[in-house]
Amino acid sequence: MRNRFIVLALACVAASTAFTPAVVAAAPAAKPVTHTVTIEGTQFAPASLTVNRGDTVVWVNKDPFPHTATAKGVFDSKIIAAGKSWRYKATRAGEFQYVCTLHPTMKGTLAVH
Amino acid sequence: MNSLKSVIAGAMSLAAAFAFGQTPAPASGPNDAQIAHIVVTANQVDIDAGKLAEKKGSSKEVRAFGKQMVTDHSGVNKQAVALVSKLKVKPEDNPTSQSLKSGGADNVKKLRGLKGAAFDKAYVDHEVAYHEQVLDAIDKVLVPNAKNEELKGLIVKVRPAFVAHLEHAKMIQSSLKG
């Protein structure tokens, strides 16, 4: 009975430690993740995205006409045709404003940490 | 410019015709079949002008913009036609479509007689006025009167493209002045 209580107590400690943010932060670099930015209605959604270095961002064009995702000097999808997508591996850290060169009202921000 | 105003007038007279007509429903504007026709016509008019600009534009910017108008408005129309056939709506001609069409024909006729910088200016000025006018029609006539949710959704979804085209045309307009 006493042994079982100790085991239970230890399990609780282990569980609570696992969820402590400090432990998460101290973990080695997170596994790369793929994020999606949907292009629809001549807008980027989400318009603002924060990712970690090494992550991949995919812009998916759901509009019936082409768009681009262009941050001058950093990345440029060129034409993303209707129904197509473009992937970018975010290797450079920084906060980048990007536009669609065809539709100057379309603006987005990609922050890479 | 007059032809552009006449489209608004056409839309208004259509609304008036419905308001004072014998239509049993409390309709005060175009029905969905007419709205579908207006959407397709509005896009086609800009495709026709764009095709001309793609060929006759003197600056690279104007030619590229004309090409983009052909691509974007063709894409929208492809989607509109697909929706209309899915909904089994038969687009119905109406005064707004007719004034859009005659306005477009007048514009193309005028543009054919111009070249060089004069062509560029006339085309871009018309694109600015045309997109402003279509946005006005979207907000005042098409969206408020569209009954079918999918038809309304399509118009709402393409609206930002018209705003983007207007901004783009204005940018080219001011660069041509410089």
Q: How would you explain this protein's 3D organization?
A:
The complex is a heterodimer of chains A (113) and B (178). By secondary structure, chain A is α/β, with parallel strands linked by helices. Chain A has a domain at 34-112: Immunoglobulin-like (Sandwich), CATH 2.60.40. Chain A has helices at 2-18, 21-26, and strands at residues 34-40, 43-45, 48-51, 56-61, 70-71, 75-76, 85-89, 94-99, 107-112. In chain A, the strands form three sheets. Chain A has a four-stranded mixed β-sheet with strand order 2-1-4-7, with no helix packed on it. In chain A, strand 5 (70-71) and strand 6 (75-76) form a beta hairpin. Chain A is globular and about 40 Å long. The N and C termini of chain A lie far apart (50 Å). Chain B is mostly helical and 178 residues long. Chain B has one domain (2-177): Up-down Bundle (Ferritin). Chain B is built from six helices and no strands. Chain B has helices spanning 2-20, 32-56, 60-86, 95-112, 116-145, 149-177. Residues 14-26 of chain B have low confidence and may be disordered. Classes of the chains: A alpha/beta (113), B mainly alpha (178). The interface between A and B is medium-sized, with 15 and 20 residues.
Tell me which CATH architecture of the domain at 34-112 in chain A applies here.
Sandwich
Structural class of chain A: alpha/beta
Which strand order does the major sheet of chain A show? 2-1-4-7
Overall geometric form of chain A: globular
The first-level CATH class of chain B is given as Mainly Alpha
* Contiguous helical run count of chain B: 6
Distance between the termini of chain A: 50 Å
CATH topology of chain B, what is it called?
Ferritin
Q: Low-confidence spans of chain B: pLDDT under 50, at least 5 residues?
A: 14-26
Largest sheet of chain B: none
Write down the overall mean pLDDT of chain A: 85
Q: Which chain pair shows the most residues in contact?
A: A-B, 15 and 20 residues
CATH hierarchy class name of the domain at 34-112 in chain A: Mainly Beta
Q: What is the CATH superfamily of the domain at 34-112 in chain A?
A: Cupredoxins -  blue copper proteins
SSE string of chain A: HHEEEEEEEEE
- Proper CATH architecture of chain B: Up-down Bundle
Rounded mean pLDDT of chain B is: 89
Low-pLDDT runs of chain A = 8-27
Largest sheet of chain A: 4 strands, mixed
What count of helical segments of chain A does DSSP give? 2
Count of strand segments of chain B:
0
